[in-house]
Design goal:
By secondary structure, the protein is an all-alpha fold. Helices cover about 65% and strands about 0% of the residues.
């Protein structure tokens, strides 16, 4: 150490250098803590939404699990869909 500087580094803070460094670290760690808290909350929210989505999907399949024509699809649309399905260019 030379003149109180570590490896000759001088950050230009003068006599308040240690206070500035420690306050910067406190702010940095505070932002990091807030970021971690927000991230954990977002992940738990996403997991809850996915569970709800799976439940709604299962409920929809249980309701629509019988053989009938799709709601809102007319005879012309069914014929067109069947002709497209049976077309020779279909892989």
């Amino acid at each position: 150490m030379r003149n109180g500087l570590l490896w000759g580094w001088d950050f230009g803070f003068g006599e308040y250098g240690d206070i500035c460094i420690y306050s910067d670290l406190i702010v940095l760690y505070s932002f990091l803590g807030v970021k971690i808290i927000i991230g954990v909350n977002l992940v738990s929210y996403a997991i809850g939404r996915r569970a709800g989505m799976e439940a709604r999907r299962a409920e929809d399949e249980a309701i629509n699990n019988f053989e009938r024509d799709p709601i809102g699809e007319g005879k012309e649309e069914q014929v067109c869909g069947l002709s497209l399905y049976m077309s020779p260019g279909r892989v």
